[in-house]
Structures are given as structure tokens and as C-alpha cells.
Amino acid sequence: MATVGAIIVAAGRGERMGRIDKILLPLGGQPLLAYSIATFQASPLIDAIVLVLGSHNIEQARALVARGTWPKVVALVPGGNRRQDSTQAGLAALPACDIVAVHDGARPFITTDLIERGIAAL
């Protein structure tokens, strides 16, 4: 069976939202980022999760992960200047995997079904 890692990229600067860091804004009582983490955690196909964050919010995200029940989160790393730099930082922190899913952490409505269909399509 293939090992599958996930990189949740959430290192944006919130420029379109007037420099507001949306990944930590509350939505339904939880920070936006918590939804994506929980969904990847819930998928039985995902073995490890790396969070890529802006250096300004790593400590807040570390506290969020500590409060959650997400043992698949194996690393929190600072992102780069561009999305591809952030993705590369996530890849470098991810344990060896056969498949890697990359998700935008500002998109909270990912489902386990969508994750699993994407992996199955590979």
C-alpha cells in the first residue's frame, strides 16, 4: 500500500484581505485552518501531515495543534516567499511518501471523500 503525505500550505500574507491572516480567523467556533487539518487527519489514507505557515503565525498554529487531536501532524515549518517555495519547504519536512497531496489551508471545505477520490485517481 502506498504511503500518503499531505502538505497544508497556509503561509499567505493575507494581501487580498487587507493583511488579515485568515487562516486563524474563527469560523463556527474554530480557526479556519482547523477544518483542513481535521479533514486530512480523518482520512484513513493520509499517513502524515505537514503544515506550512507564515513565520508570524507558527506559534499560534503550534498552540492550535497542541489543543487538537491530530497525531498525523508531524511538522510545522515556515513558508517561503512564493507558494512553490512554501510547498518545497513542506516537501522537505515530510517523511518519505509515495504520494503527496497539497492543499491550500485557506480552503476549509475539503472533504475526506474528495481527498480519497484524488488519491484513487492516481
Structure description:
- By secondary structure, this protein is α/β, with parallel strands linked by helices.
- It has 4 helices and 6 strands.
- The chain has helices at about 30-40, 60-65, 85-95, 110-120, and strands at about 5-10, 25, 30, 50-55, 75-80, 100-105.
- A 4-stranded parallel beta sheet has the order 5-4-1-6, sandwiched between helices. The protein has a two-stranded antiparallel ribbon with strand order 2-3.
- The longest helix is centred in the first third of the chain and has 11 residues, at about 30-40.
- The chain is globular.
- The protein starts with a strand and ends with a helix.
- The model has no long low-confidence stretch (mean pLDDT about 90).
The radius of gyration computed from the alpha-carbon positions, rounded to a whole number of angstroms, is 13 Å
Which structural class do you get from the secondary structure elements?
A: alpha/beta
In spatial order, strands of the major sheet run 5-4-1-6
Beta fraction of the residues? 15-25%
Average the pLDDT over all residues and give the rounded result: 92
Largest sheet: 4 strands, parallel
Return residue spans where pLDDT drops below 50 for at least 5 consecutive residues: none
Question: How many β-strands, per DSSP?
Answer: 6
The portion of residues assigned to helices is 25-40%
Shape: globular
How widely separated are the two ends? 13 Å
Which sequence of SSEs, written as H and E, runs from N to C?
A: EEEHEHEHEH
How many H/I helical runs? 4
